[in-house]
């Protein structure tokens, strides 16, 4: 039978094979091959692939075009079909054994556009892994516009469809664009930056399992699962990026990173390790971030280098009591293959670099990380936590990439040494808050009103940097922003409001009046609180029906909405429950601690001292029902209990502090004697005072000649937050009266706007001025505003790398000018521009006792330098001025030189990396010549030539006050001979 007749006779079957999957990929792939062979023209291609037309119609058009072209085209079509669907050939559908003697075709690649056609299949295969990179390159080179990029990135398209659309756009742009793209791909392949792995040979069952896994993950991830999924919101509609930063400084990365960088090579510090840690405080969005990664992989929109992705919940793993093998863990807790489990498991072991695991909530695991129990055999059974720890450290399945989330306080040094990198998730940026609120409220008018109210209440705005609190505020905006009874100040205030919000919606008939839930719903609150407290103490976050019975939880209690059915199926084949969010569990636990009459008097001291609460709490008979893990190795668990319980115990203690504050104690007087509330309040106050004294006693004596400083120990910020939650100035005053240091260092302490509010509340009661070091945190503009109440007690403020903009600086300087003690500020690595220099100029003009201004690594240009020069011209006190890593150029250097020529106080000036050439150097030489105070001038990494250096050498001959060691001109425009000659002429120049 002729091949043309074979295509005609089997038309129905061919259409079924091409279209039965519902995906356009088979039709498009066959078309790619025929295009590359020259059998289809570009006009043919456009007639076949009409956007918006049904898949079957496009497939029929392809068959029509091929059939009309004759025997040769039909044969090439069947060969292409055989390549695309090698294992999809159904019974009754046959390919010819031999259909023609193929002619040797002359490859016509005279043009770059022609190359895009002839190499189309391989280009699609390569580009689908790097579409974003190619688009960015084409946009930067001006071959593409933003509109072109947006059209290609449409979410409807799969990565391969985006790659084809990209090739079509490039071809339409002409030869220059085609040449650029081909060179980009070639350079990427040579450098290894473009994924160009050989396609793994996988079985049909493997592909079915992959499809099943993607389908399962897509179903689990398409709706927001955190906060109990109460809003039933599509993740696409509500997901908002948080601030991601590398924990370790990376020379090639400045500022935030993206989702794709989590599993990428960016920021790697240990090439031998395979585990990435994403750390962030409770409510910072860690679970939602993983959910987003899962959904992107399931849709083939990201993480394409991984063929399989297995998600694990440490909260769920806590309920696994039996020992498992690695294979059982993998399939039972994620997705079980329908067939050929051994074959698929063998593939995973043979190709670990193609597999990705995620573990959410390592801090919620009952055991803290340990490398004591080594396990290498994937078929050997062991407790789940042993399997997990061996996966993380690489003893099991070395090469598999793992992404683990945890709160920072649960990250031990032992865990850190097994990480290839650590990524910090720091909640929402100001723009992130705006984005989330607008997504949460479908009515733009409501969203605008909420945002307007937040910006007039900066304390509440600061709280919203935590995604979970932003969610609460969005849900309760009417209660929080329109109550008229004083705006919320503390986290406890916000959680009390959301509890009221839930009860209000549970009792719609009473919606006209405010519900006194602490009276009307006290019994269910206590029952939920008892369950929550027991869970916190025993590191239990998923509860079975049996766990609910001892606390007498009723169906009515469940209907309130605080305890919801868990999406994580436990090992028991019954319903399981969890609180809306772990912070909500901590809040109810705190209510129980405050109100319950059944707890021992030692509960609060043990809670604040983070001692084992089991001996107190286990006196109640029902408590043991909650301890699911008592059946396994209790001794080893007790040994690690403190480390894993600390984060949630601390949060519970923080809420207890707020609930016992003077502003909220009246809520409990109807159910607790005033004497009991007073006793618990005194206990909390005593614990906080004792905890602060413990920190102060740890301060070492200063080295001779240095000032006394204190670097915050773990828990110090937590105690500060507890004091703030109590809103008692007397406690803050008592604590700070015992602190006598010149510098308080809180670097790398996860200080955000919320912590800044608490710090200002407490530190304003210091007896003596202090230098406050908050480098490498997430203070931001809102945090800066929260610090203003304590500025009068700060003699210096260090805010390096805190994402601060001109807006925050404007408010800070306005306050600082009024503070007599304030003399120094350091703001390296922020987002400052010329707009802030007018404020600093005013500071220099106004404060004639200001000593140090350091603005390195920002975005200040010549215009900003000219503004600063106006302030420097009249200032009579500044000793240190740092402007390295900006872009002031010659014009900026000349302006500064003009202002400083007659200066008599400046000792140190750094203009490193500012694009300064010889003109700027010659201007600065006048400062060197005439300034009697200047000792060091740093000009490294500029563009200074011999002429500029000659001016500096000549100036030095007139100034004997300059120090003998000048670290000046390294990395400028000088040849080796010039460097050697000038070094001999002036020993104070160090090249």
UniProtKB/TrEMBL annotation:
GO terms for molecular function: ATP binding. It is found in: Basolateral cell membrane; Cell membrane; Cytoplasm. Keywords: ATP-binding, Cell membrane, Cytoplasm, Immunity, Innate immunity, Leucine-rich repeat, Lipoprotein, Membrane, Nucleotide-binding, Palmitate, Repeat, Ubl conjugation. Residues 274-410 form the NACHT domain. The keyword Metal-binding does not apply. One of its GO terms (cellular component) is basolateral plasma membrane. GO terms for biological process: innate immune response; regulation of apoptotic process. It comes from the Eukaryota. It is a lipid-anchor. Residues 1-83, 114-187 form the CARD domain. InterPro entries: CARD, DEATH-like_dom_sf, Leu-rich_rpt, LRR_dom_sf, NACHT_NTPase, NLR, NLRP_HD2, NOD1/2_WH. Belongs to the NOD1-NOD2 family. This is Nucleotide-binding oligomerization domain containing 2.
């Amino acid at each position: 039978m002729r091949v043309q007749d074979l295509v005609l006779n089997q038309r129905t079957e061919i259409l079924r094979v091409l279209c039965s999957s519902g995906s356009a990929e088979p039709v498009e792939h066959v078309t790619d091959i025929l295009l590359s062979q020259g059998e289809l023209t570009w006009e043919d291609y456009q007639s076949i692939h009409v956007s918006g037309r049904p898949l079957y119609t496009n497939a029929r058009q392809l068959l029509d075009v091929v059939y009309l072209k004759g025997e040769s085209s039909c044969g090439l079509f069947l060969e292409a079909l055989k390549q695309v669907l090698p294992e999809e050939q159904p019974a009754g559908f046959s390919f010819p054994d031999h259909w023609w003697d193929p002619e040797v075709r002359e490859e016509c690649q005279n043009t770059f556009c022609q190359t895009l056609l002839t190499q189309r299949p391989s280009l699609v295969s390569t580009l689908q892994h790097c579409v974003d990179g190619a688009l960015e390159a084409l946009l930067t080179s001006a071959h593409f516009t933003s509109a072109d990029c947006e059209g290609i990135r449409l979410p409807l398209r799969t990565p391969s469809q985006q790659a084809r659309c990209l090739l079509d756009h490039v071809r339409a742009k002409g030869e220059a664009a085609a040449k650029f793209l081909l060179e980009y791909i070639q350079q990427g392949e040579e450098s290894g930056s473009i994924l160009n792995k050989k396609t793994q040979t996988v079985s049909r069952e493997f592909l079915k399992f992959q499809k099943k896994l993607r389908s399962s993950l897509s179903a689990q991830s398409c709706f927001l699962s955190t906060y109990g999924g109460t809003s039933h919101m599509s993740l696409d509609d509500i997901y908002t990026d948080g601030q991601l930063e590398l924990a370790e400084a990376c020379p090639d990365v400045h500022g935030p990173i993206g989702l794709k960088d989590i599993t990428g090579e960016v920021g790697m510090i240990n090439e031998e390790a395979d585990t990435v840690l994403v750390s962030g405080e409770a409510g910072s969005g860690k679970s939602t971030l993983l959910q987003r990664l899962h959904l992107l992989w399931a849709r083939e929109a990201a993480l394409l280098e991984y063929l399989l992705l297995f998600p694990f919940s440490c909260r769920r793993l806590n309920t696994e009591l039996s020992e498992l093998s690695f294979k059982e863990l993998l399939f039972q807790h994620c997705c079980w293959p329908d067939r050929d489990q051994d074959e698929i498991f063998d593939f995973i072991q043979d190709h670990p670099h193609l597999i990705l695991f995620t573990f959410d909530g390592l801090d919620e695991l009952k055991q803290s990380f340990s490398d004591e129990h080594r396990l290498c055999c994937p078929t050997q059974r062991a407790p789940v936590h042993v399997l997990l720890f061996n996966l993380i450290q690489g003893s099991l399945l070395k090469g598999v990439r793992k992404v683990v989330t945890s709160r920072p306080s649960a990250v031990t040094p032992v865990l850190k040494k097994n990480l290839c990198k650590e990524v910090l998730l720091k909640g929402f940026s100001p723009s992130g808050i705006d984005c989330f609120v607008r997504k949460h409220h479908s009515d733009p008018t409501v969203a605008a009103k909420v945002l307007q109210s937040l910006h007039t209440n900066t304390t509440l705005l600061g709280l919203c940097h935590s995604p979970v609190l932003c969610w609460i505020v969005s849900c309760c905006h009417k209660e929080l922003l329109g109550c008229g009874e004083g705006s919320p100040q503390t986290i406890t205030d916000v959680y009390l409001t959301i509890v009221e919000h839930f009860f209000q919606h549970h009792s719609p008939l009473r919606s006209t009046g405010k519900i006194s839930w602490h009276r009307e719903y006290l019994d269910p609150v206590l029952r939920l609180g008892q369950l929550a407290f027991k869970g916190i103490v025993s590191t239990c976050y998923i509860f079975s029906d049996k766990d609910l019975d001892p606390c007498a939880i009723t169906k009515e209690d469940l209907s309130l909405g605080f305890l919801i059915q868990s999406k994580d199926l436990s090992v028991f084949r019954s319903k399981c429950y969890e609180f809306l969010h772990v912070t909500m569990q901590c809040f109810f636990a705190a209510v129980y601690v405050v109100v319950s009459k059944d707890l021992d008097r030692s509960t609060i001291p043990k809670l604040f001292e983070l001692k084992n609460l089991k001996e107190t709490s286990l006196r109640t008979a029902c408590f043991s029902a909650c301890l699911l893990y008592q059946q396994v190795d209790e001794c080893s668990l007790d040994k690690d209990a403190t480390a894993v319980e600390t984060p949630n115990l601390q949060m519970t203690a923080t809420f207890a502090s707020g609930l016992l504050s003077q502003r909220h104690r009246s809520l409990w007087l109807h159910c607790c004697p005033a004497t009991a509330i007073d006793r618990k309040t005194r206990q909390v106050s005593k614990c906080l005072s004792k905890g602060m004294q413990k920190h102060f006693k740890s301060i070492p004596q200063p080295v001779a000649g240095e000032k006394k400083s204190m670097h915050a120990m773990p828990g110090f910020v937590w105690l500060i937050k507890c004091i703030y939650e109590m809103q008692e100035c007397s406690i803050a005053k008592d604590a700070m009266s015992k602190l006598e240091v010149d510098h308080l260092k809180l670097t790398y302490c996860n200080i955000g706007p919320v912590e800044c509010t608490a710090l200002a509340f407490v530190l304003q009661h210091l007896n003596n001025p202090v230098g406050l070091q908050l480098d490498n945190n997430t203070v931001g503009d809102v945090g800066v505003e929260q610090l203003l109440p304590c500025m009068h007690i700060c003699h210096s403020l260090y805010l390096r790398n805190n994402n601060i903009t001109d807006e925050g600086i404007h408010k800070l300087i306005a306050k600082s000018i009024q503070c007599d003690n304030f003399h120094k500020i350091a703001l390296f690595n922020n987002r400052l521009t010329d707009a802030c220099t007018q404020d600093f100029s005013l500071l220099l003009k106004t404060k004639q006792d200001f000593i140090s201004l350091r603005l390195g690594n920002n975005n200040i240009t010549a215009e900003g330098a000219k503004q600063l020069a106006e302030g420097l011209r009249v200032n009579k006190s500044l000793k240190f001025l740092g402007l390295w890593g900006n872009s002031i150029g010659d014009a900026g250097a000349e302006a500064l030189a003009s202002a400083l020529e007659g200066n008599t106080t400046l000792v140190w000036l750094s203009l490193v990396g500012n694009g300064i050439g010889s003109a700027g150097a010659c201007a600065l030489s006048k400062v060197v010549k005439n300034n009697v105070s200047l000792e060091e001038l740093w000009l490294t990494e500029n563009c200074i030539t011999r002429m500029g250096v000659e001016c500096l050498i000549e100036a030095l001959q007139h100034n004997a006050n300059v120090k003998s060691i000048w670290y000046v001109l390294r990395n400028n425009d000088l040849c080796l001979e010039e460097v050697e000659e000038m070094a001999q002429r002036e020993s104070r120049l160090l090249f």
